[in-house]
Every structure is written in C-alpha cells, then in structure tokens.
Amino acid sequence: MSWRIGVDIGGTFIDFCALETGTNRFETIKVLTTPDEPGKELLDGLGLLHERHGVAPEEVASFVHGTTVGINTIIQRKGSRLALITTAGFEDVIELARLRMPEMYSLFCARPEQLIPRDRIYGVRQRQLASGEIAEPLDTDALAGIVEAIRTKGVDGVIVSFLHAYRNGVHEAQARALITELAPELFVFTTSEVWPVIREYERTTTAILNGYVHPRVAGYLTALEAALASRGVPAGPMLTKSNGGVMNAQTGKRACVNMLLSGTASGVIGAAWLAEQAGVRNVLTLDIGGTSADLALIIDGQPQFGTGEVVGDFPLFLPSVSVTSIGSGGGSIAWADDFGVLKVGPESAGSTPGPACYGRGGTRATVTDAMAASGFLGHTPLAYNQIGMDRARADAVIGELAGKLGLAPQATAEAIIAVAVSEMFVEVNKLVARYGVDLREFTLMPFGGAGPMLGCFLARELGIPRVLVPHRPGVVSALGGLIADVKGDFIQTVFAAAVPDSLPTLREALARLKTDGLAWIRDDQRFAGPVVEILTADMRYHGQSFEIEVPLSEGWLADGDLAPITEAFHRQHLAIYDFNDIAAEVQIVNLRLVVSGATPRPNLAPAAEAQTATATPEHMIDVWLDGAKREVALYHRDALRNGHRFTGPAVVAQQDTTVCIPEGFEAQVDAWLNLHLSLRPEA
Amino acid sequence: MVDKVTLQVLANHCRAAAENMAYTLYRTAHSTFVKETEDFTVMVMDKTGRVVAVPMDLGATWYPGMNYNRAIDLVDEYRPGDIAFTNDPYSGYLATHAPDTHLWKPIFHEGEIVCFVGGHVHNTDMGGAVPASLSRSLTEIHQEGIRFPPMTLMRDGVFDEKVLAIMSMNVRKPHLNMGDLKALAGALNTGERKILAMVRKFGAKGFMDGLDGLMDYAEHQAREILRSMPDGDYVFADYADEDGVDGNPCRLKLTLTIKGDEAILDFTGSDPQLGSSLNVPTGSDPRHTLLLVGVYYVLYTLNPQLMLNSGLTRPFTCIAPEGTVLNPSFPAAVGMRSLTCARLRSLVFGAFSLAIPERMPAAPAGSSSIVNVMTTDERTHRSVIAAINPVVGGGGGMPHRDGPNGSGADAAYLKNTPIEITETEVPIQFVHYGLLPDSGGPGRWRGGLATVMEFKVFAPNSRITVRNRDRSIFRPWGTLGGLSAETSNFIINPGAANERVLGNTDIAIAEPGDIIHIHSPGGGGRGSALDREPERVLLDVERGYVSAEMAKTRYGVVIVEGAVDLDATAALRATLRPNAHTTHFHFGPERDAFEQVWHARNYDDLTGLLSALPVHWRFFVKTKIFAAIRDAANAGDVETAFAAVRRDYPQVPQVMLTAA
C-alpha cells in the first residue's frame, strides 16, 4: 500500500490530494496557511491526512508540491544580495531592458527597481562575437580587481553575463572559476548554465532571478526534506515547475528559477487531465482565487507553452505554461467613481481581511459579497468549516454602495458581478485574439474558490456554450502536481539559415541537447522509466523579430533533409499568422529539447450511476438573478451522482466552492462526477 | 440595458473589441513598422467617426481623440462590406504623413450604420523621392510618395485590385504594403464581428447611446481635471533645433487659457510653415489629435482611470493659424512631422507645468533617434538594410521621483532590439549601449539619463540614417529650480583625430572601421538640486549616474572616500544657494543666448510680420531676417532687419509690423 501526495500552497489555503496507488482511492483536504510559520501547514496537513484518511507517513511514496516561496521572494523583494558582471560597455543591460514600459500614456511611467542596483554591476573587458569567435580575451587581472571590489559589498552571490555567451560559454566558465577561487564564499551563476538563449536582457534576467531566489529556495527545500524525514516519509520531495513538469528538490536547489510559476502551471496540468478524462479537447481554464484570476487555453488537449510570463515585476524567459493573470478575484473591491460609474478592482480585500461576509474584518463590498447578497452563498459550510459566512455583513456593505449609486441593493450586487465579469471578458478576448481561436469550440473550466461562482456568467458573456466544473474545483492545482511528469527543457541557440550548410551545426546542437537531457533525467532525477524526447525549433523568416516554435522530427536532421523542416515552418506560420512566404529565407534560431518521464495517471473507477436521471434539490432558495428575484433549486455537490441531470437556474453548494448556474444552462453529471453545463442555443 | 452605473461593462466590451483588432493586426502584419515599432493604431468610432475606444496594450499613442468624420464624408457612398482608405495628409486631415494609411469600415445593422471601426499602419515606403518616403530635406508633398484621397478600397468584401495595382506600381516594397493593408482589413473585419456581438447584447440603440455615454464620461473626466487647475493664461515656447537642413531654430508657441472646465490652446506665434518636411498638417481643426497628444498624456497622468476617447477633447479648443508650421497650406511637405510633434508635446507639457507646477514633471528628453544602417556584409557581399535600436532619453524629474533612465514619458512605447540579434544579422559590432552619466538634469528629483549607443561598421559607403534628430542645441528644460539636461549628439569617431560632430544631421556616410556614436538628450530636473538628499546624490555617484564632480558643482554634495562629508556639504550648499537658479524654467545657456537676441518681443514681431505675408513668402523672409540679424553684430530688431531684407529683395511685399 502506498500513497502519492500532491500539495498546492496558496495565499489562504494549502490544498492536499492523496492517491492510494493500488486502490486508486482519492482523498483531499484543505488547511489554512500559517504565514508566520511557513512549513508548519505542511506537517499539519500530513497529520490531518493520517488522522482522517489513514494516510500513514511511511506509506508516502511520492510527495509533489507547488510552492510560492520563489515567487514571494521576488514579489516581497526578500531575495539575496547579488552582483552582476557583464561585458564592458553593456553594464546597463538590465536597466535599459527592452525599453518599452507599461502605462505608456502616463508621464509618470517608471521601471521597477532592479534586483541588482547599478553600483553592484561591473563591466569587464572581453568579447565574443555572434559567431562565438573570441574577439578579445577575458581580462583576468581586471576581473580579479572586480572580485575584490565585490567582496567589500557584502553580497551573497554573483551573476556572470557576457554577450553571445549562449554561443560560447568559455569566458563565463573561466570567470566563474576565477570568482570561486578568489571568493569561495560567493555562489556564482552564469547565463550560459542557467538558460543559454540568445537575447542578452532576457538571458541575464533569467539568471538573476535564479540567483535572487536561490538561497531562500535552497534553504526552504533543505528544511522541507528534514521535516518530511522527521515524520518518517520515505519519499524525497518533488517540486512542480513552471513548465508543468516536476523535478526533485536536489535539482530545485540550484535550478530555482524553474519553479517560480509552479502553482499556476500545475493548475493547468490538472485541468488538462480532468478535461481529458471528461472527453473535452479545447478548454479555457479559469482559476479564480481571492485576489487574481488565471486564464489559460488548452488546445486539442495540450496546455499552451510560452516564454515571457511575468513574475512580480520581471519577465521570465523560460518555457512556462502560458497563463494570463488578472488582478480580479473574489476579493476585488467594488466602488463608485465621481461620475457615478461602478468600478470593480484593482484594489482587493485579499485573504486578509477578505470579503465582508467572511466576518474577518472586511468592511468594503467585494465580488464575493455581491454573490452573498444575491443569495448564492452560505448554503453549506465553506472550506470544511474553516470560514464562516455572514450574509448580513454582505447586505450591509452592498447596501452602503447601493446608496452611493442610487440603485437598489440587488441591482447593485448584480451590477458588481456584471462589471467583474466584463473585466475578465477583456483579458479573455486578448488571449483569444493572440491565439486566433474560436471560443465557440471551447469549454470553460472554472476552478479555484471563486471560479465556479462566476464561470457561467463569463461563459454566457463570451459565447462559450459549455462549462465543465470539476468534482473538486478547489484542489485542481494540487492534483496537477500529483500527476505531472518529470520534465526538463534544454535549449541551444544556433541561429542558422535553414540550408544544408547549417546541418553540421544543427546536428552538433542536437547531440549536445540529447546528452544534457539524458544526463538530467537519468542521473539528476534518477528516472528509470521510458524517456520521451520532443524536439522543436524556434524559427522565423529572415528579418522577423520573433520566432514560432515548430515541432521537428529527429530523422529530418539525421537524413539531412531540410525540406520537411521548412515546410513545417511555412505551414505553422500560415496557421498562426494567416500568411506565409515560401520564397523567403527561413532561420532556425534555437533548437529545443523537452525530456520527460511519465508519471502514472490515476485510473479512477467510474462513480456508481444514479438511480434516477433527475437530481433532487435539497430545497429551494431565493436568489437575485438576471434582474429578478427567483426561487431556484439548491443542490449539494455530494448528493449529485453519475448520470444526474437538472436545469438552471440552480445553485450547487460544495465544501470548496459554490457553482452558480443561470437560466438557460442544462446540467449533467458524468462518471467522474464532473458537472457538464451546456447553454441551450436559444438562451 | 446600458445605464451610467454599468457603463464600465460597455467600456470593457469596446476595449475588448479594440484589443482584439490590435492583436489580430499585430499577429498578421508583415512589416517591421508594425511588428517592432508598433507604429499602428486601431479604434472603435461612433457613427460619425469620433473615436470611442482604443487598445491599451499595443500600438502608438497618438489617436485616441481622433475624429474621422471629415475623411468619412469625402467618400460618397457606404455599403455593407465596404472599407475606405486614404493616406493623403491634405484630404480630411486624417493621415498626417503619406506613409500612414488609414482604413475605416462602416458597421451596418439592419441597413443602418451603427458605427465605424478603423485604424492605420505606417507603410515602410509609399514611393517618392527617398526610400521610406521620409526626409527632412523634402520641400513639397509631391516628393513624399503617392497619395490616395479618401476612396473605397474594398467593396462588398473584395479589394479593389486597380487601387492595389496603382499602389504596388508606385512603392518600393509593395509586398509589405499589401501584407499590412490586408492585415489591417482583417483586423477591421474582426472589429465588425465584435461590434455586431455588442449590438446583439446591448441592442442597436443601447449600443449607440452607450457610445455617447462613454464620450460624455471621458468629457466629464477631462472637465473635472481642468476644473482642478487654476484659471489663467499660461504662455510657453519651445524650439526645434533647426527648421530644415542648415536652418534656423523653429519656435512653437502656446498660450494655454484655462477657464473653469474648459481650455483654449492658442498656437499663434509659432513659426510660419517651413520649407522642409517638418510641418504638422492639422487642417484648422480645433480638436486635431496631433495638437492634443500632449494633452492626452497630461490628462492620463493626472487621472490614470481616464477613458481614452474623443470625448476628452471636447473641453479643448485649438487655434493654429493657417500657413504656419502647425497648420501648413498645401503643398507643404509634412513627412518628418514626428520631430515637430515631439516639440509640440513638450510645448504642451511646459504650458501645463506653468498651470499646475506641483503636479507636472520636468521636460522629458523629447527626441528619440530612429537609426537605420545600410551596409555590406563582407561574408556574402550582400547589401544589408536594418533598423538598429532607437536611441531614447529619460523622463523628466517627477513631483515624487526621478525620471526613468533611458526611456520614459512620451517615448515609453518604443522598443529596442537585442544587441545579440542585431550583431547576428547585421555586420556591425556594438562597442557601447548604455546610459550616459551626468546627462540627466540635476534637481531635487533628477531627470532620467540619456542613452548612448556606439557601433563600428566594416564596409565602405555604409549609410547611417538617424531620423528625428533634435535637442542637439536646445536642452530639455528643468522646472522649479531643477536644471536642464544634456543635449543629444551624433558623432563619428568620437575623440579620434578623424572625429566628425554631426549634431542634428540625420544622414552620414561612414568608412570601414568608423565608430558611430549617437546619444540622446536626458530628461530635465525638477526642484533645486541643492535640496536633493545627500545620500541620494551619493547613491547616484556610486551607481555612476552622476560624477563626483557634478555632485559637487551642481548638487553641492562633497563626497570624501565614498561618504558624504555633511559639514562640507552644508557649507558648500550655503555658498551655492544665493546663485541658484529660481525662475520656473531652466533652459540652459544655448537657449538663454539665443533669447538674448531672439527675445519674446523680437520673435513675436517676427511671427506677426510673417503672418501678414503671403504664405509662399514666409519661410524665405524668415530665413533672410535671421541672416540679417545674425549679421547685425549686436542684434538689431526685426523691423530694421525686415527693412534690410526688403532693400535686398524689393519684391518682398511690404507689410506693417503690428504689435503681437
């Protein structure tokens, strides 16, 4: 008997999923976070799992968790003190960045404070060219002087970033060796080891983020290993990564930058698996928590990957599950401006004090209060009785805002929901335009504490005809960790024209990728099972400023046949951009290899079928919906069985969320107890 | 269903339509102007052509207050499926130079036009005298490429092949123009789908009334901001370095009158229209968007919740007399109006700085050089033409913080290209790309630093073009005791024996091994540098933003062995303070010297006199009067100079000097 455990640490709660491998028994719990004692909640949760569900620590064969320790280190600016050494003449690389700033209409637009201020950035004479050829040797005397200066600055570590080091990392390695020799107390990361990709700002920033979170993440992981060991858990902890995969804690201590988006990414991985199980291929995921909403597309069963996701104030240029975050959630505050127009956000009541109706000190109307005042919430204990629901407080704060607006309280609550939904509508539209997809072919999957509350309203606004609410919407991210594969990304910048002359370069790059990838998965991750390698290339037409990623077959390179490579690019370019240019020169900028080892998916048994097709409501409740007071059916999620059907308007209450279903939706429960809601065409 | 309380819902739907159009265009366009520079716009308009919504993520910032209606009216008939277009700066005053092609599409519902969607792309080339169709030296619009008056480009969903064939025949990169036009047409079709969905949701009347509501909302916000400013007349002038190649300064002047919740922007006193392509075509439109771009920035800065649509232009009335640089008469050249527009924005910022000094920053750098290189790749012997990084300067010191370094304010939308990408593709080698120490205007809040870019070329006859060069003579100004910033420059082989200092020149031929150096201006300082905390000055010195020398001379901070000597600093500041600069603006020695001769009365006399002359005489006479005054050793007055000019050129019509 053994258990696999997936854990996701959020702002308010920490979620646990436990899967018994033999029986496929599946249990979940939720524990309040203890911000003052990080790590304590993990042990609390393990204790609770043991107590309630009999999950003995010594039977835990795998422990995968998503943690916000890395991203919080960046957001709270509590990372290490670093110095940066660049090629002389290019010391301002991180301050100039890519120039363009947010808020481009404001004369007060500004850049965030850099993680390494300019007085700890040093230029050293050395130069590689774009070809990798060394044009000027590394000035080691000058470097020794710089190291001496750095040692007076009280730093923890050094980042080394030289121009064109993605092509030739010799000078960076030489510099690292010298720094380590002269100042063994400093840790050193070079851009060519962290992520050797062309584009100096992007590569440097990625290495800096890695060094910035390194001491905290490493310390956290060491403590976690000790804690688990102290409880007698035999498994070493695994970490979810921004790329949707997992790695072991040992790797995570140095490759820290890879876990910055661990929770959001595993939410999408969890959603993709649930969708697959439910037989749905195209999904828009909507994970709404207290302060933010995360949106992602799953196209033909595949989560989408990209680079340039934003972490705190900084872009992250590693392959990551593409997630759009909006500062709009259940805690977003509603207010009226001086013209009498209702606004929702960007200010949020967050998890403390939270919405007024939680009775934890919140005094301003939030989206959750609007839902409560409309009668949707409070029909079942929330979050396993850890949060109370005080309708009267919601009515009071909504009533106060209604007074300012000159509207009835119910109309005010409904307007808050409409405005909040329209904020998300803008972001979804941008996402859809970026991918060029048609939402009518998609299913919305809402999860997180507030997702199912707002999901149907957003679907209706977007013209998405189907909504899929997972059985346990509160633990999708934890589930994602539990099922994620061991997965590493490798990159080689080649910047070669797609012509036969480039073949030796391409083959050499591929060989290096394969060596590195296999060493990672076999030696570092100790993964013994079958390894899957996916080869892609970042390609573009000569003169374009960005690339698209094209899947390649290894055989094409081995055979020396470039035609299928360029054809695949032309095809994909046409699909994404609506045009291609068969006559133009094609460039291969990077070769990428994804190396992964599969984690067995739980093979859950279908739930027992309901005896009748019609679900029986618990009772009727009064809600304010679509401009009128209505009596609607209230269902308890736990009472909904495989095969049950019912029609909206309805409310489904469950421990971790509430599902609001307006009129026009038909609901059906599937064999895995997912709730499929479909909008009648005329509705 | 749209009422005032839920106006935000319609605003979000309109913005979603605009963002959707922008992403579609960005995704499908071909040219680097769209892809890299993001020199494009898209918008949702009401049924008369007033802009109601623009994207906030992508594109340029100039057109949220635009009104398409004059151009719309120049096309006789609209049918469903039509798209109309123009690039003529003088027909409807929509396109403001020939490379900008504007398209608009009527959206029909039950046979009636409910609104328009539209947008523009900057075409890589529209033909004419020079590649890219832009040069300061051009003198009439006919040299700036082929022009299409407002006409139907697409009928019943089908492009007019004749129009496309004529364009293709006349431009240098037809496939780029065609690709971008089709991408923009595709974006407008996306917009149409989104609009029709809104009409279904809100009802045709609800939608159209809602658009009016959104413009009323923006108008209300703009009026609230104006009401918060003290009534009064605020007079300001700023200068472009030169009015043409080897020219004289070009003055822009603004009298900003704020009264209650309205404002008048009177540009009378600005230069006559120029014999170069620096003219800004505005067609006597009292709310022309180019005259108001600076206003959008000011309003948005003061209220970041501002709805950006044409409603916010309603409280403003602009006066720009005909035949002047801000309202040229056909056929004046207008291609490089972007240089003048940068001055126009700093002019507006300066006037508002007088009205609300406590809420406005000092001048941003105000000149972003757009650099292109044409050279030969020695490996392939192929000619390479490439856009290199824009060279952008910092923002002005703000009421609460330093100006950002290397970009900011009205240049914040520009992007650069990684050095590693450029070096891979273009046979040049960068020597330096970074911030220029001591270039930001000293102040309580320092101006943002300038950027410096240096690269080496390897082939003979490498041609370097650097558009929008300005602020090489007149500095970005400081305010409230803050000092002006460093000027820009363009130098070949700086510091070497064969150094060539090119100032605001915008083209140069380089030899193998030459180092090309371009640096931007910095941002102006705000508040007295003597009031800046010594620790902050020390930090600036440690960070290399400010030299120890400047810390001492400008900030009065004495640094000894890496620490502030507080006593010495206090003593030094006490001696510097009596001579500290105290007027509202600090312009720097160049402008001060210029205004010794060309003081306000003299310049007002000049523009008054020129405005009385027929348009075709104005630039000629301005040039002659400048020469006459330069020759008159200690600066005669304009009247005497004019008399001297008339002696040499009796053909010049006699006009009387009237008090300005």
Could you characterize the architecture of this molecule?
The complex is a heterodimer of chains A (683) and B (660). In chain A, α13 links the parallel β23 (443-447) and β24. Chain A contains 17 helices and 35 strands. Chain A has 683 residues and is of the alpha+beta class. In chain A, α10 (367-373) packs across α11. In chain A, the strands form 9 sheets. In chain A, strands 13, 14, 15, 20, 23, 24, 31, 34 and 35 form a 9-stranded mixed β-sheet that branches. A 6-stranded mixed β-sheet of chain A has the order 3-2-1-4-11-12, sandwiched between helices. A 4-stranded parallel β-sheet of chain A has the order 6-5-9-10, sandwiched between helices. The mean pLDDT of chain A is 92. Among the domains of chain A are: 1-66, ATPase, nucleotide binding domain (Nucleotidyltransferase, domain 5, 2-Layer Sandwich); 77-216, no CATH class; 486-597, 2-Layer Sandwich (Dna Ligase, domain 1), CATH 3.30.1490. The longest helix of chain A is centred in the N-terminal third of the chain and has 31 residues, at 200-230. The longest helix of chain B is centred in the N-terminal third of the chain and has 29 residues, at 174-202. Among the domains of chain B are: 7-220, no CATH class; 362-528, no CATH class; 598-648. Chain B is globular. Chain B has 660 residues and is an alpha+beta fold. Chain B has helices spanning 7-28, 32-35, 69-73, 161-170, 174-202, 204-227, 289-302, 337-355, 419-425, 534-542, 548-553, 566-576, 589-597, 600-612, 615-631, 638-648, and strands at 40-45, 51-53, 83-86, 100-109, 112-122, 151-155, 158-159, 232-240, 250-259, 262-266, 316-319, 370-377, 382-387, 428-436, 450-457, 462-467, 478-479, 489-492, 500-501, 507-510, 515-519, 559-560, 563-564, 585-586. In chain B, strands 2-1-5-4-3-6-7 form a 7-stranded antiparallel β-sheet. The N and C termini of chain B lie far apart (54 Å). In chain B, β6 (151-155) and β7 form a beta hairpin. Chain B is built from 16 helices and 24 strands. The interface between A and B is large, with 69 and 92 residues.
